[in-house]
From TrEMBL:
InterPro entries: SNase_OB-fold_sf, Staphylococal_nuclease_OB-fold. Residues 1-18 form the signal peptide. The lineage of its organism: Bacteria, Pseudomonadati, Pseudomonadota, Alphaproteobacteria, Rhodospirillales. The keyword Hydrolase applies. It comes from Stella humosa. It holds the Pfam family SNase. Keywords: Endonuclease, Hydrolase, Nuclease, Signal. This is Endonuclease YncB(Thermonuclease family). Residues 26-132 form the TNase-like domain. It comes from the Bacteria.
């Protein structure tokens, strides 16, 4: 068994070393996509979940951003649920950046500062969940 341990460690690490994931995506929720059976959580953002008041709107906005076009996703590891964490692009458009800019996700500073400027822009413009009257819905989020 001691001889197998290093090989088992390598096998567990292999998915994190995989190359880009490309193809048409299905939207699971505002910050999670599925490409060819691989669940992908967008890096450094947090969108309302489907069971939360704004979850359906975040999912719809993600579908509009993707616009039924193929994505190119660059994996950055896995989350605690074993989803692939990645930066996904539709052409040159960073999907997460656009979702945050439209106000339907937050920059998740715990995991990176990549999208703080887009969140600040959305707040200043009152877009998406930052629109007037959305305070109660925002307050009900699990990840404030």
């Amino acid at each position: 068994m001691r001889l197998l341990a290093p090989f088992l460690l390598i096998l567990v690490a292999l998915p994190a070393l995989a190359g880009p994931i490309r193809g048409p995506a299905r939207v699971a929720d505002g910050d999670t996509l599925v490409i060819d059976g691989t669940r992908i959580r967008l890096l450094a953002i947090d969108a309302p979940e489907m069971g939360e008041p704004l979850g359906g709107r975040a999912r719809l906005e993600m579908e509009r951003i993707i616009a039924r076009r193929p994505l190119d996703c660059e994996p950055h590891g896995h989350d605690r649920y074993r989803n692939t964490v990645a930066v996904c692009r539709r052409g040159r458009l960073d999907v997460a950046a656009e979702l945050v800019r439209r106000g339907w996700a937050r920059a998740w500073r715990r995991y990176g500062l990549d999208y703080v400027a887009q969140e600040d822009e959305a707040k200043a413009a009152g877009r998406g969940m930052w629109a007037p009257g959305m305070e109660a819905a925002r307050a009900s989020r699990r990840h404030p």
